[in-house]
Amino acid sequence: MRRSTTRPTGTHRALAVGASLAAAAILAAGCSDSSGEAGGEVRTITSEQVAQADTSGTTIRLITHDSFNVTEGLLDQFTSETGITVEQVASGDAGEVVSKAILTAGEPEGDVLFGIDNTFLQRGLDAGLFEAYASPALADVPDEYELDAQHRVTPIDYGDVCVNYWKDGVAGGTPPASMDDLTKPEYAASFVTQDPETSSPGFAFLLATIAAYGEDGWEEYWQKLADGGVTVSSGWEDAYNGQFKAGGEGDKTLVTSYASSPVAEVLFSDPKVDTPPTGVVLDSCFRQIEFAGILAGTEHPEAAAKLIDFLLSDTFQADIPLNMFVSPVNSEVEVPAEYTQFTATPTRTLSLEPSEIEAKRADWTERWSQIVTR
Amino acid sequence: MSLVAGPAAFLAVLVVWPLVAVLVRSFEGVGPGRVAEVLGRGSVRSVVAFTVGQALLSTMLTLALGLPVARVVARYRFPGVRVLRALVVVPFVLPTVVVAAAFATLFERYAPGWRDTLVPVLAAHVFFNLAVVVRVVGGYWAGADRRLDEAAQVLGAGPWQVFRSVTVPRLGPVLAGSAVLVFLFTFTSFGIIRILGGPGRATLETEIFRYAVNRTEFDVAAVLAALQLVVVLGLATVSAAFQRRISRAQRGRVRPSARTVAEGGWPARLWLAGALAIVGVVIVVPIVVLGQSSLRVGDGYGFDNYRRLFTTGDLLPVSAARALATSLQYALVAAVVASVVGVVAAMAVTGGSALARPLEVLTLVPLGVSAVTLGFGYLVAFAVFDLRRSVWLVPVSHAVIGLPFVLAAVVPALRSIDPRLREAAATLGAGGWTVRRLVDWPLVRGAAVTGAGFSAAVSLGEFGATSFLSRGGDSFTAPLAVARLVSQPGAALRGQALALSMVIGLVVAVVAALIEWRRGDRVSLL
User: Does B116 contact chain A (CB < 8 Å)?
Assistant: First the structure.
């Protein structure tokens, strides 16, 4: 199903924001008229254009989700290389970032958006949020991460949402060997996951079950989890810090979190520990890939493109793991040992097409609610 | 007329314009058929019923528990009365995400059977809103003449009869005013419902968020937001009319009088014991649980979490201490803006202008309209001139939310002024402004300070609108820091979030106590 999220631009608003923006907005809005193919007419920024442009003295805005974090001064390096100043704007969680961008399509709040992931990607593309740019730096990025052939978005990092367990206490010290095991009563009753309607990891785990058991099998799987007494929380914070043992108060020994959560458990431990108290169910992982894109309507397309290049550069890519707890897509980059040592490597990575996720999201979550929350 | 213009312009820019802008954009191309279809859904009807039901229950509970405390605070002097008054304000500023977690813990520990019911939600709502009843009603009550009650007693009325036929009618306007504030606060409850409500329990506010953010079905979100707005406008209109009717009959207050508990004898002791029990269970226990967790270091206790507030690096764009400094600056700006605009608005509302009534209704809208709707509205409307980047946006949006509190305190105070006082002053040759300065101002000053204090408190604890408008770095506030800290695994981060919450609460307690102390023993309108 295509959502009619782009809308014609009224002339009154166009007048108010100036002719140049209006032109861009109409360009973006044009997408909604395109035939079946998502995206429609997209402005393309070429690497020659970028190479020739004098961008020094420009200021651009990078819209991110709240989890965006870099080592202090890292963006100054970009400024000294290109003369471009970057203002970072944190704009809520991943879902908020995308919905805000859609609501302000054509009059974007910034020039580059970072943090749209594969579960929201199609929605952003359908809304015509981005201009196309194929960064030369993509040469070092494996093809599996490039989900948009038109390069309207550029992959930056990836991570996995997986079921975590508390080593000391999970079913008498025996962690579940597989996703199948989770439905057994001794595990299901100790498992807390999140409502896919309100939580990004919760939705990712639902997608993991759909990818693993198929359209015909996932409902049965959840029925077993529900019968076994699985607990559903509305968000990650309550599930992990409140109900999971890690928070000190909860009694659940299984929780939906990230493959990299054990890293944070060591890094931010108190008292300090050298091995994580948690582990990961290795076949339960749904792959999330995060992208950046140049927002349609930007007045600084070349400077925005240079920022995309920078996000793929060794400098930025190497900074990602210990600040955002996800892995860089650039395969040439050396990742800190502290990160790799305790980040789980899934035995399989479950994934679904972004277009399928977007088309079936509402249906899946509603069917899920029927089973789990009665 | 001229008095109406200032506050009206303020609200037009900061409330009406963004709301209209976002609703217009979301309704583009949506026909009446679609609106009817959304409103006709069974799920929408049950969400409305739940939203109103839980808000009504929360309001009644808050009033029932708040009134005895308000009475004690207003009527008796005893050692620690100021501490008590300062203490009730603390919950108001504690970050929702941490408080919700504390209540979840409390119920899990002591009443696991109630964890999945509505009780934790109601308890948290009372915790947050008790201050509104105690401070707003208590302040007014302290100024009400006790001799009327005594006269009724002498004439043979029992305590209940005195309460019903003398006290309630006199407190009517302020009672209704604070009830409306509590209702609106809980009507738009978001964080508490999300964390404590559990799956299946949704308010209009959480549904607006779900449709706008999770589903990008802006048209459905807009229908729900419009519905929410209609309820708020209706309630505000009724409340304004109600307040006018009673307050006209209630003029001429005399010197306030409070007495010591010893003078009050055993009834006073009973009242005091009851009030302390309420505050102890409703407010102190949850704060103690929070405090205890914030001091937990490894297997023992210590101040490590507090020390870490001054370090940078752990996930936050600035240190927690710096975020707290930003929050304090914003609170100051919000308090000044809200009290100045609020006092002018209160004068306009109590004046004779034909626009007074619409203005009174309008000032309540920011409290009852969803932060999500308003936040999206700012993004759409303020694209012009790039206002959405302004550093003033966050504190000014806080002032908008604080405004109803200033009015709730100041309007009843202004209405209670005997018109004969003004007439006398005018007869003696005082001009309009001189009357305001010499007659009105001394009587509303205390109420204005209460309102300013609440605005500052609202600002310190505000999360919803801030998360929409903050741009990180320079506008990164303490509640945002708390939310950020609990979004990653790690005991150290969690400890830091708890410590920061306690510090926010402590700052407010100290400021509130200082105001109490400066006021000395004089029992005035707060």
Answer: no
- The answer to the question of residue B50 being in a domain is yes
Q: What is the pLDDT of residues B163-188, one digit of tens each?
A: 777 777 777 777 888 898 899 889 98
Task: Judge if pTM exceeds 0.90.
Answer: no
Fold (topology level) of A14-158+288-341: D-Maltodextrin-Binding Protein; domain 2 (3.40.190)
Chain-centroid distance of CA A165 in Å reads 23
> What are the structure tokens assigned to A321, written together?
């793991």
pLDDT band at B144 (very low <50, low <70, confident <90, very high): low
Residue (of A216, A202, A212) closest to A181 by Cα position: A212
Peptide bond just before A271 cis, omega within 30 deg: yes
Q: How confident is the model at residue B518 (pLDDT cuts 50, 70, 90)?
A: low
- Bridge pairing between strands A153-166 and A254-258: antiparallel
Which of B128, B131, B151 has the alpha carbon at shortest distance from B139? Answer: B131
Give the residue numbers spanning the domain of B153: 2-518
CB-CB under 8 Å, A90 with B491: no
Q: Does residue B92 form part of some domain?
A: yes
A237 and B101 within 8 Å at the Cβ level: the answer is yes
CB A322 within 8 A of CB A177: no
Q: Is A41 on the interface with B (CB under 8 A)?
A: no
- Report the C-alpha gap between B317 and A151 in whole angstroms: 30
pLDDT tier at B312, thresholds 50, 70, 90: low
- Where do we find the tokens 């793929």? A312
Mean pLDDT of A52-57: 90
Residue B196 confidence (pLDDT): 85
- With contacts defined as CB-CB under 8 Å, which chain A residues touch B298? 270-271
Q: Residue B208 belongs to a domain with what CATH number?
A: 1.10.3720.10
- Strand, coil or helix: B200: coil
- Tell whether A246 lies on the interface with B, counting CB pairs under 8 A: yes
What is this model's ipTM? 0.79
Single-letter amino acid code for the residue at A142: P
**Where are the CATH 3.40.190.10 domain residues in chain A?**
14-158+288-341, 160-287+344-372
Task: Return the percentage of chain B with pLDDT > 90, whole number.
Answer: 20
**What pLDDT digit, counting tens, does each position of A59-107 carry?**
999 999 888 888 888 999 999 999 999 988 888 888 889 998 998 888 8
Q: Check: CB of residue A188 under 8 Å from CB of residue A230.
A: yes
Determine whether the interchain pair B199/A72 forms a contact, defined as Cβ–Cβ distance below 8 Å: no
Q: Are A238 and B195 a contacting pair at CB < 8 A?
A: yes
Residue B444's contacts (CB-CB under 8 Å, 6 or more residues apart) are B343, B346, B410, B413, B414, B525
In total, the C-beta contacts within 8 angstroms joining chain A to chain B are 147
Region B291-319 average pLDDT: 82
| Cross-strand pairs, B132 | none
Cα distance from A324 to chain B (closest Cα, Å)? 8
Tell whether B201 is within 8 A of chain A (Cβ). no
User: Hey, is the C-beta of A73 within 8 angstroms of any chain B C-beta?
Assistant: no
Class of domain A160-287+344-372: alpha beta
* CA dist., res. B411 & res. A128, Å (int): 50
Tell me if B379 is assigned to some domain: yes
* Number of structural domains found in chain B: 1
Cβ-nearest to A197 among B214, B467, B484: B214
Asked if residue B190 belongs to a domain, the reply is yes
Mark B77-98 as b/e (b = at least 16 C-beta within 10 Å).
bbeebbebbbbbbbbbbbbbbb
- Pair type for strands B76-77 and A286-295: unpaired
Contacts of B192 in chain A (CB under 8 A): none
Asked whether the beta carbons of residue A237 and residue B195 sit closer than 8 angstroms, the reply is yes
CA distance A2 to B34: 18
B31 touches chain A (CB under 8 A): no
